[in-house]
Amino acid sequence: MTGREQWTEADAPASKASFVPFGYKLMFSYLIFSLVPVIVFGYFANSILLNSIREQTTGSVQTAMRQMKDNIEYRMEDLIRLSDMIYYDNSIATRLRQYEGGWYSYESTTEYLQPKFDGVLKATSGRIWLSVYLRNETLPEMYSSYNGTDPLTYAGQSYDVFHLMRIEYEDWYRNFPAEKYGQTFGWQQVENDAEYGNISLLRRMVDTNAVTQLKEIGFLRFTVRLSELFESVKPAFGEGTSIRIEQNDGIVLFRTGGPQGGGDAADGGNGVLTIEERFEVAGWRLVAHIPKEWVEKDARKVKLLTLAVCLAIFLIFLLLSMFLSRYFARRVSRIVLVLESFRRGDFRKRIHFKGKDEFSAISRSINSMAQHIDELIQEVYVTGLKKKEAELESLQAQINPHFLYNTLSSISRLAKFGQVEQLHRMVRNLALFYRLSLNEGRTIIPLANELEQAKAYLDIQKVKYGDRMDVLFEVEPELLRYETVKLILQPFLENILEHAWCGDWVHIRVTGRRAGDDIEICIIDDGIGMTQQTLGRVTPGETRQGEGYGIYNVHERIRLHYGKPYGVTIHSRHGIGTSVCIRIPCVRRSVPYAESASVSA
């Protein structure tokens, strides 16, 4: 049978294969590649617009919130300025240091303290309630009775004077921070402030004439309405917008806006744009929640416009893809018909296209291929035969002629000295070695035969080296049912006896175990080992052979039969020894072997 006849019979189809026509594939490809850019264009155009609107909205809201924050901080600083009029007044401190009753107490109250407090309240137009707590109890208390109502409701601008003992046990007074001159003050809702919707500026009165430290001589409390302090906070950013002012601990001081004029527009969820501004004076946060529906309301029109443009572009691409797919499908169909005839073994058909495009170049290449296809098939067939012959020659070359010569010399020496039993055993092992090595020309043999051949080789060498060589086989019995490429152990055993001697002795250990779906056989010695440079030269790689021909031969034969995941790996340390591991797949044997074969130490 010729090479051409073999190729034709092997590749002849039983029935005509069914497939999707090229025209449909091309049309679908055009549609996909045209639809994807349109979708991407629409997506990014819409995303860019939304980001632009969101950035513009965020910028305008931040500007408005910054203005709100500045207005609030101005009001707070104005109140701090009023407290400074009392805090830094040395005449007040002088009067409060004098613990004298009678006329002096009356004069201090009427001539100094009351005018100062009245002057402070007249310096502002806002509604303020001033509470002054004095440590000097020689001065009288002056206060009004508000009957459990908000003092700011009773009097727009008023002040009360109390003794400090009234608040000494209040938590807000006892937990007030230590005094730093001119810097210590705080904004808190104390006593009934939260109930009435007020907030107070708290500040000490200190005697600066104290020698060692500032001495507290009183305490100031300026109370204002939250609605007046935060008068500039208005949710003017659209329907559903809410704004709130939070303390550092998260407590909400003031809130305005939200759905239907109240509440909060969701606490920063996915449907809400959150913007924050921080106060420098009190450390509060001004937080605005703006519904994204309001932010993106103008983007809906752009979405519809983008969708319409994308649909128009898609229809244009659809018509264009149908025209192009029909044009190219006709040409491809003609090429497929010619190739189908080639697959059936008929190389007489030719194909021609007009023009100088890619299809014309393909037709010329196909026509040229048809003229040389018979030669290529024959060349492949001959190359395969030569490759098999080269493999057989390589296998035979592994049997070292020096081994046969040395073995015959040892047999002659045993016969000369009349050592009949050793002579008989050596001749038997030599016959067994060559019988298993040649193996009637078969390349794949049972793993048991390969192990037995290796044992026969070592038994022959045992006669030569005696007790200087110690051998141990540790092979799992279940591995004997599998097969392997022949002559994969003997080259490494030969290398050990030729190069690995460490003094006058060497120990050899052959192990075999199953690793998943693979077999791993290791030949281990405790000889002289190799340096890293020597190991690099003899180890076969992906792109080089290596200096160790026997190693490379075994490695390549294993990869030839079982694939690239398998082969030989070598590990060695100079002065310690060498370990050669051979990995092959678990393939059950397909040829019988002698059941009497044994693999024992």
Q: Could you list some keywords that capture this structure?
A:
single chain; 601 residues; disordered N terminus; 17 helices; alpha+beta; five-stranded mixed sheet; 18% strand; disordered C terminus; elongated
Write the topology of this structure.
Elements: H1 3-11, H2 22-87, H3 90-97, H4 103-122, E1 128-134, H5 151-154, E2 157-163, H6 171-174, E3 186-188, H7 193-196, E4 198-207, E5 215-225, H8 226-229, E6 242-246, E7 252-257, E8 272-278, E9 285-291, H9 292-295, H10 299-343, H11 358-397, H12 401-416, H13 420-438, E10 444-446, H14 447-465, E11 469-475, E12 483-485, H15 490-499, E13 506-515, E14 518-525, H16 532-538, H17 549-562, E15 567-573, E16 577-585
Helix pairs in contact: 2-4, 2-10, 3-4, 10-11, 12-13, 13-14
Shape: elongated
- Indicate the low-confidence ranges by residue numbers: 1-17, 260-268, 593-601
Main β sheet profile:
5 strands, mixed
Rg is: 51 Å
**Quaternary organisation of the protein chains:** single chain
The computed structural class is alpha+beta
> How many strand units?
16
pLDDT averaged over residues? 77
Distance between the termini: 51 Å
SS field, number of helical segments: 17
Strand content: 15-25%
